[in-house]
Amino acid sequence: MNWHELTCLQAATALSALMLTAAVILAFLRLVHGPSVPDRVVALDLIAVLVVAIVATYNIATNQPVLFDAAIVLALVAFLGTVAFARYVERSRHDD
Amino acid sequence: MIELFAPSLLLLGSLFMLLAAVGILRIPDLYMRIGTSTKASTLGLICILTAVAVHFGEMGIGTRAIAAAVFVFLTAPVAAHMIGRAAYVTGVPLWDRTIVDELHCRHDRRQHQPSNQHVDEPTTGGDGQR
Question: What is the count of structural domains for chain B?
Fold first, then answer.
């Protein structure tokens, strides 16, 4: 790979993808390690937001604006998932 | 100059996302972790969505980016509040160096609701006796 032919936008998207991947790995460590269920839910929420950001970055990198709808739908579903997890955690405490 | 705008916004947003992930790994308490990850990831996502809107420069993409940004601004605090309340109700411990827990006397964890037993009485002055 020839580094001199990279444009500024290509370098920025590559670096951004690198940082977002490192962020997903760190959040996944919390997901594995988290001592309680809400820890894991927060880590999953952060991972969902990170995936939305990765899709948006991939949008810019490939110059395909069609994928942006997938990012919006993913943001919606992530919110619903977090709310459902929160209600599940609260309900499971309430029953016993 | 204008072609540097989208890459710099993209890098800024990714940096905030990375800081959110570092915070969710390093911060010792669930509640502080919720705060830092929600705020930092919201700001990072807003920056990245703005970068997408600036890069494409079309009306449809810009409108969708604004809609997604408004949606994230509305839903991220709600989700954080809900998961924080569920964690407090289920008894996730606070950090051992936490100074103030204002919900401690007002919230009965077993009853799943605020601990005023007499709901129909006026609540002024009822808290000092408990």
Answer: 1
Domain borders along chain A are: 9-95
- Note whether residue B126 is domain-resident: no
Domain contains B50: yes
Alpha-carbon distance of A75 to B1, in angstroms, equals 31
Residue B122 included in any domain: no
The ipTM is 0.88
Calculate how close chain B gets to A92, using CA atoms only, in Å: 9
Best of B48, B59, B89 to disrupt the A interface (most A CBs within 10 Å) is: B48
Per-residue pLDDT of chain A (96 residues; tens, 9 = 90+): 566 677 888 999 999 999 999 999 999 999 998 888 999 999 999 999 999 999 999 999 999 888 899 999 999 999 999 999 999 988 886 665
Q: Using a CB–CB cutoff of 8 Å, tell me whether A28 touches chain B.
A: no
Q: Which of B19, B29, B24, B31 is nearest to B83 (CA)?
A: B31
Of A8, A24, A75, the CB nearest to B3: A8
pLDDT in tens, B30-58: 999 999 999 999 999 999 999 999 999 89
Q: Which of A15, A85, A49 is nearest to B83 (CA)?
A: A85
